[in-house]
């Protein structure tokens, strides 16, 4: 099923996106609203819309638009999965004019390796060179401290 995908920030259904990420996703459960809003402001966001104009999917790219991009928060609403919408979102991301000729694109996934492999994503070529600083429970820690952003 074809959907319309664009990067118009005014068209994004922020409430729908926030509800999905903070309540349904495995990777951002408990996401504070102010952190969510900042993440959208500082990313290239892609909304997927059905024929009625209702948002059915989302993804964002964190990028310098010159050398690097990180694909994040890609999802399709539960009732619309299995219709190729996720593929259309990824294809739109990879075709975006500001994301051409980048040296490296990365992403993390627990369960969609097959999807991303169709677009040339592979396991890390040199995992020994990459490091991370991960605070898996940061949102819970902030909530316990009565904070949201940590600022």
Automatic annotation (TrEMBL):
Residues 5-136 form the N-acetyltransferase domain. PROSITE patterns: GNAT. One of its GO terms (molecular function) is acyltransferase activity, transferring groups other than amino-acyl groups. Keywords: Transferase. CDD domains: NAT_SF. InterPro entries: Acetyltransferase_Butenolide (IPR053144), Acyl_CoA_acyltransferase (IPR016181), GNAT_dom (IPR000182). It holds the Pfam family Acetyltransf_7. It comes from the Bacteria. This is GNAT family N-acetyltransferase. It comes from Chromobacterium sinusclupearum.
């Amino acid at each position: 099923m074809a959907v319309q995908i664009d990067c118009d920030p005014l068209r994004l259904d922020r409430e729908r996106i926030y509800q999905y990420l903070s309540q349904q996703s495995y990777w951002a459960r408990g996401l504070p609203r102010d952190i969510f809003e900042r993440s959208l402001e500082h990313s290239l966001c892609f909304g997927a819309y059905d024929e009625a104009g209702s948002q059915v999917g989302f993804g964002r790219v964190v990028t310098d638009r010159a050398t690097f991009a990180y694909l994040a928060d890609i999802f399709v609403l539960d009732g619309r999965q299995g219709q190729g919408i996720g593929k259309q979102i990824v294809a739109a991301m990879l075709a975006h004019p500001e994301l051409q000729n980048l040296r490296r694109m990365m992403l993390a996934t627990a369960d969609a390796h097959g999807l991303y492999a169709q677009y040339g994503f592979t396991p890390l070529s040199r995992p020994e060179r990459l490091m991370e600083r991960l605070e898996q429970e940061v949102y819970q820690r902030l909530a316990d401290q009565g904070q949201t952003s940590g600022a």
